[in-house]
Each structure stands twice: as structure tokens, then as C-alpha cells.
Amino acid sequence: MEVKKFTLITGASMGIGKAFAFECASRGMNLLLIALPDDGLEETKKQINLRFSVEIITLAIDLRDHEAVRSLYDYCIQQNLVVNMLINNAGMGAGGKFEEISHEIYTDMLHLNIRALTMLTYHFLPMLKQHAPAFILNMSSMEANFPLPYKSVYTGTKNFVYAFSLALREELSHCNVKVSVLCPGPVLTNSDGLKRINAVGNRAKMIMLMPAEVAKIGVNNLLKGQGIVVPGKINWTIVKLMKLFPTGLKMKLLERLFRVYTDH
């Protein structure tokens, strides 16, 4: 009997996560969509069902909870759900002076951006290996390449995702499990995202992409086996050029560019 396989997407009810869901459905993939309770999951499912004939399972889970990942994995085992693609998209950020952001926000950010992503990969990796070819796409950020003043914890978490993904990719190079890390620049996902883009100004708008563009580029390159994916030619050029700057000069430049976050 043929096993029915699913693509698991976290943070799937809005923004890039929702775009991932549509992109994967357009390719005939069955979906296991995870998002916060009461966060538009059923509406996303309804919209996808109007356009694509794929099976969709939705689960309202707060991945910041310590037992959430294990509960999700246990659910899949109990329901005989086979995951052959894991898209670790869920995440959160904050900008401002380090000491002026609450420790609760930092705790949530560390749990969601690092702990949940790592434990999801840990629990589902044996299943992915068993049902290869399989794929892992981890959502980092273009900012993982830059230690940004006024976004120190956020960029630290995204740097972890970047390093973790590349290291795991090498570990799995002899398996048929491909790992990619997606590093987008500014993406217009919601009203808060628009405020952040407006705060940085025209330079952010020049490199801004829409969620559907990022999702398509991400999935295309994941399936091709690309390790690092930076959507947008300008973004990719900026990442390369910034590596040529001396660290001291680069940090002074970044501090001036992102000083706007002290007021936003």
C-alpha cells in the first residue's frame, strides 16, 4: 500500500508560512499545517481547498510550549502520518535597545526560533530518513550574516539557524535528506512588517519581496538541493559585498543603519 506523505509547515496561517502552504499545494503536496490557536489556520485551509486537491490537516499548537513539539510528533505517530518535508518557518523578532525589550519576549524568541526548530528537526529526522527522498527547509534571515545592533537577539537566533542548517546538511550529505537554509531580506508579511520596512526607509523597500516570491524561490531551491538560499539578486549581492568589509567598519555602518529601531 502506498504511504501518503505530508509536508509539515510551521507558522502556516499567515505571511511566508501561508505562502509556503499554497506553493506546496500547487505542487500536489499534502499538508500538515501548524500555527497558533485562533490564528487563521482553518481559513487558510479553506482557501487552499478552493484551488488545489490535496489533503490538508491543521493543528493549532503554540510551539513555545515545552511539550508542544513532542506532542506534535506523537500525534503524527498515532495517526500514521508520514512527514517527508519539514519546513521550519515559525519564528518571531523584535528590535530596539537590548535592555528595553522584555525578558518574556526574549524567552519566547529563543524558544520559538531555536528550541522549537531544533527539536522538530530532532524528532522528525528518523522519519525523514526512513521515507527519503526527504527535505528540511529552515527559515533564517539575510540578517544572519550581520550581527545587527538593536536586533542583537533576533540576529543571534537566525545565525544559529544558519549555522545549524549548514552543519546538519553536511552530516546528512550521505543520506537522501536535503537541508536548505532560507535567508530572505525584508518581506511584506503584515502591518508590523510594513512598519519595520518603513522605519528603515527606501533602502529596505528596494530589496523587499512578497511572501509568495520567497516561498517559490525557497521550495524551488530546496528541491534542487541548494544549501543557502538568499532570494533576490540585490540581497545576494549585499551579502557577498558585506563579507569584504573589515568587521569594525561593518559594525559601525550597521549601527548607523539600524539606529532607527531605537525609536520604532
TrEMBL record:
Record keywords, A-Z: Oxidoreductase
E.C. code: 1.-.-.-
GO molecular function list: oxidoreductase activity
One Pfam family of this chain: adh_short
Keyword Oxidoreductase: yes
Top-level taxon of the source organism: Bacteria
Keyword Oxidoreductase: yes
Family to which the UniProt record says this protein belongs: Belongs to the short-chain dehydrogenases/reductases (SDR) family.
Protein name as annotated: SDR family NAD(P)-dependent oxidoreductase
Organism expressing this protein natively: Negadavirga shengliensis
